[in-house]
Every structure is written in C-alpha cells, then in structure tokens.
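[SOLVED] Predicted holo structure with adenosine-5'-triphosphate

Edit: marking solved, answer below. Original request kept for reference. I posted the sequence and ligand SMILES and asked for the 3D complex as structure tokens.
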Amino acid sequence: MLPSESLPSSQGETTTSRKVGDRAERDAAGGVPVIAARGLDLVFATADAPVHALKDIDLSIHRGEFVSLIGPSGCGKTTLLRVIADLERPTGGTITVNGMSPDAARRARAYGYVFQAAALYPWRTIEKNLALPLEIMGIDKAEQRRRIEEGLELVGLSGFGKKFPWQLSGGMQQRASIARALSFDPDLLLMDEPFGALDEIVRDHLNEELLKLWAKTDKTIVFVTHSIPEAVFLSTRIVVMSPRPGRIHEIIDCDLGPDRPLDIRDTPEFLAIAHRVREGLRAGHGYD
Ligand SMILES: Nc1ncnc2c1ncn2[C@@H]1O[C@H](COP(=O)(O)OP(=O)(O)OP(=O)(O)O)[C@@H](O)[C@H]1O
C-alpha cells in the first residue's frame, strides 16, 4: 500500500485511551443527546403516489458514539441522515441535534457531512476545496492555512494540498472530503456510505484509519453502510432498518471494545454480532 493511501496512524497512541462513554451513565447525568428523534415520519409528495420514506423513528445518539445505519436499498438511511442535516424536513414527529432544531444546528455548523462520492470541486486544488467552508464562515487567511494543514495531516494528505482532485486516487479523494468535513471542527460527522465505491483493500484500510481518527478526535459519527462487516467493525451501535416505510427494526450494541485491529473480524465475538445483524436484516425484510 502506498503511504499516501493511509490515514495517519495514531502512533504511540492506542484507542484504549479513548473515553468511550457509557450511555446509561450519561442519561442518568442528564446529558443532552447529540441526536434525539421521536416518532419521526417523512412522506415525500411525488407526482404519482406519496412515498413513505421514514416511519415512527425513535433514536437517541450520544456524544462519542459511532452509530451505523444499515438496511436494504431504499429503506431510508440517506433520508434519515438528510433529516439530521436539515436537508429534508420531516412530516411528523420531532428531532433535535445538539438540543436544537436541525435548522439551528445547521446554521451553528454542528456537523460535517461526507457524501458517497467525494464531491470535491474539480477546478479547485485540494487545499482550496478544504478552504471553501472556512471562506464561507469568514475565517481569516492565516487561520484557514493553519486548519487546512492540520486537516491534511489528520487524514495523511500532507503535501497533496496543491494537487487537483483528479490527480488523486479515489481513496485519497475520499480522505480529502473527510478533511473538508472536519475543517471547521464539528462535533458530529454524518457519513453516507463514504467508502462504498472503493475496492475492498482500500476500504478495509480506511475503515481502520477512520476508527483511529474517531478515537483521536472523540467525535460522534453517524455512518450509513450496506456492509455488515463494515458496520460491526466500526460501530458502538448498529441501527438495523427495514424496508419502506423505513423503520428501525432493531438496535444492536456492538461491544467489541475500543481496540479493533482488522483481524478482530475473525473472532467469535465479531462473528456473533455480524450474525445478529444479518438475522435482524432478514427478519426486518420479511424474507421468511
Ligand atoms: N426527494 C425524494 N422524492 C421522492 N422520493 C424520495 C426522495 N428521496 C428519497 N426518496 C425515496 O425514499 C425512499 C428512501 O430513500 P433513501 O435514499 O433514503 O434510501 P436508502 O436506504 O439510503 O437507499 P440506498 O441504500 O439505495 O442508498 C426510497 O424509496 C427513495 O426512492
């Protein structure tokens, strides 16, 4: 693997140093969830029949969690992420982000959003792509420079700032888009199948490095995926969704601890959780 294909490892640090908070304790302490959805519903009005994309979603996500949304195509994973990001308005129920409405949270720049495709502007260099949200926020040039360098270093792209997106591999472009989402230091990262288009080896590697980055920055991450192993490897909890109207079928704790080398995927504990997720997907799908 090229060195440039790696997110930087947190050398000398281990993920065990991370304070993985205990949700029950935080609830008892009255901590405000980062995301709190109650009875959330979304019906898209279309030219023919209305599309019931989300139905009765109840979900609380707390600071420092890594929560994956998994489910069959069209079950509303992206729609749920877009509701959190204030890119779609629910038609029923309530949702707060950091205790605010999604609209207020968006204006407060509470989250960074990483799309499935890197969505970088091809006519801007990597550093100019990273600068864009900072320019919009009116951050001065010197501070922009500092944050861009820090962001590039965080994702292992130091020295690539002057390149254009098309001069980088798919994995490197996706890392640049992660750095852009982190450039204004949001506590919450929303990621919509960010590695879905990458080959398995690069994807494995970025999974491993994303986990280290999460441990290092203590962000809350909501991550959409179709992959059971990816969900189990990354998450502290897995939300299994069922097809239209998209509902939460089951929420599975993924208590594998913070230290997760790739070969954890061969352990009985990992395989047992993957099995539960698969069973949840099957049951939610109504195959039988
Ligand atoms: N703007 C829209 N107007 C009408 N229907 C929509 C709109 N956006 C999404 N949908 C429909 O809502 C349902 C949920 O879509 P969504 O993209 O959230 O699913 P998903 O689980 O993310 O799917 P995939 O895994 O294929 O990306 C689908 O039936 C989709 O066709």
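OP edit: Residues 44, 46, 51, 53, 71, 73-79, 244 surround adenosine-5'-triphosphate (CB under 6 Å). Thanks to everyone who chimed in.
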